[in-house]
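Problem 12. The chain below contains 174 residues. Write out its predicted structure in token notation.
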Amino acid sequence: MFGKPVPGRTTADTEGDVVVLLIGMRINHFWAVHHWFPVLLAMPRMLRELGRAPERGLLGHVLLTAGPRTYYVVQYWESKEKLYAYAQAPDMFHRRAWAIINRKEKAGKARQHVGLWHETYVVPEGSYESIYADMPAFGLAAAHGQVPLERRGRTGKDRFAHRSAKAKVAEEAK
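Solution.
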């Protein structure tokens, strides 16, 4: 978000399905810093790990807050298969972090000081559109690239109707 604004209107240069993961935490008890602070630090560590390994499939992310208690990340992935592979990879930090959480829960030491959540969406082509006005690449456009709006259509309806060359070939084959 530190880049220079791109003048005019642009849209994300997406092709095919889009995989979006929303993942976050909620501080349930502010005074229990020793419980929630390590959780707060875990996500930046995972994002750095993924940044060093682009073949894992994370295309981009945006860090957000929903107030003083809730922090989350919108992540854009190449595929749900790559997302699952990262989540289950024994050599990656995500697996170790969940092992710690699971051990605490099994031992009855989960104290409900911090809440965790995620939602994953696979959005088929033709079910998403975007517009950015005088913005640097952000969100979906940062993950997939940014093109002039005219390339996909001036209206939301036109952008929803846009199909990649691969999708057009598949539709013609039917």
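Discussion. The radius of gyration is 19 Å. Students who got a different answer should revisit the alignment rule from Section 12.3.
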